[in-house]
Amino acid sequence: MNQLTTSDEPAEVAEFVDVMIDELHLVDAIRSPEVEAALRRVPRWRFAPGIPLAQVYDPEVAVITKRDAHGVAISSISAPRIQAFMLEQASIAPGMRVLEIGSGGFNAALIAELVGADGHVTTMDVDAEVTAKASEFLRAAGYDRVEVVCGDAYVDLPGDGIWDRIIVTVGAWDIPPVWTDRLAEDGRIIVPLRMRGITRSLALEPLGDSGLTTMSAEVCGFVQMQGDGCHEEDLWMLRGPEIGLRFDDLNAPDMTGLDGVLSTQRRVLWTGVLIKAQVPFDSLELLAAARLPHSCLLAVAGTAGQGLLTHNDERRFRVAHVHDKAFAYLVTRPLSDGQFEFGAAAFGAADAADQAAALLAYQIRDWDARRSASADDPDITIWPASTPVDNMPAGVVLDKQHRRIVLSWPSSTKPSA
Fold first, then answer.
1. I want to staple 214 with a disulfide (CB 3.0 to 4.6 A). Which of 44, 133, 241, 380 is the partner?
2. Does the pLDDT at position 304 exceed 60?
3. The pTM is what?
């Protein structure tokens, strides 16, 4: 792509790049020499002017490039780890036509390296300020062949051609028909998709005439899509602006029964399920969020929940759900042997709180049994919204505007909404 090599590159860049690449290998984010070569070749620092190099090249740090009037990040350069594994998910080959949805410039330059001189890259964003900066950065870095388009990709895609790969670099709540309509028969969509508030980067390929099947899923987080694809969560406050519950999939029940719920006695059901420090349990979050009908995420401002939501050395986590006139959420407590025990804490009327805790505890224990059998990750398929249940695999169905998402764990029964 005729990358420019100029004398203004800071002397420390090469060392920062080497350290970043080594760390990305350690976490298995880089899996191919092609992705490594692209990350080495594209000058990430050029796309984040004024940002310290240690931050620019930190594998886990996203560089925020724009915030809204409330200080919420609405555009960023994703963390190198996330960019690396999404490019690996995409499996881009020379000569491909690739569309990136959500622009910043750097990731488009990486894609340009992967498609080579015979390929074509378009990067698209709904924000004219973002695309203007992306164009400027791409030109300065020598990637002027990348096409930059300002528009809402949720509504329409540029041109009239077919795309071999569509890579979405903003958090999506749904998958609009235009993405699959313009995808090659052997194409692939990479999209960070929210499911009950839990986001996974899904590598999707066409399945039959109308569905999509997931080739891989990676834990990630992204700024929310703007424009027509924006989907706001329902936020119910339990105590002032400090403690609330966020519902993402239009699954909030009647919340009037939770008025004053935090003034009730907290109940905790410890499950006997143990985990070591630093061991991930993301699959537990997804399982509980999908299977509990009124699942939500606990939202707490700062230290507001200390002494109320947690006691002593406990830790609370975001997975929660509402049952009747109570809600329950995930907690852990440290044990003397260095392990941690999972529990379900609950507030509400006594019987309802006990039931809410028991329902969450069941999911924790079922997850523990499944992880022992390496069966804790679901198969994820995606179907048009009009697809009847009998025409989809067995599993839990999450309904969106345009799609029905089915999460299928081994031994699951017919789908339940």
1. 380
2. yes
3. 0.92
pLDDT for the residue numbered 70:
66
Q: What is the mean pLDDT of residues 208-223?
A: 91
Per-residue pLDDT, 9: 82
Q: How many CB atoms lie within 10 A of CB 290?
A: 24
CA distance 395 to 142: 48
210 is catalytic: no
Q: Which helix (H) or strand (E) holds 65?
A: strand 63-67
Mean pLDDT of the region 3-14: 72
Q: What is the Cα–Cα distance from 165 to 231, expressed in whole angstroms?
A: 24
Q: With contact defined as beta carbons under 8 Å apart, do 96 and 102 qualify?
A: no
Residues 6+ apart with CB under 8 A from 410: 370, 373, 375
Alpha-carbon dihedral sign for residues 216, 220, 224, 225: negative
Burial of 3 (0-12, 13-18, 19+ CB in 10 A): middle
> Please, what is the Cα angle at 198 between 360 and 383, to 5 degrees?
105
DSSP 220-241: ---PBP-GGG--PPEEEEEETT
Beta bridge partners of 350: none
* Most distant CA pair in the chain, distance: 70
Question: What are the phi and psi torsion angles at 308 (to 5°)?
Answer: -115, -60
DSSP 24: H
Which is catalytic among the residues 32, 75, 76, 78? 78
Which residues, 6 or more positions from 236, have their beta carbon under 8 angstroms from its beta carbon? 244, 245, 246, 247, 252, 255, 258
Predicted pLDDT at 213: 98
Nearest CA-CA partner of 282 in 371, 169, 361, 415:
371
Least confident range of 69-78, 150-159, 376-385: 69-78
Q: E strand or H helix at 384, and its extent?
A: strand 379-384
- Are the beta carbons of 110 and 85 closer than 8 angstroms? no
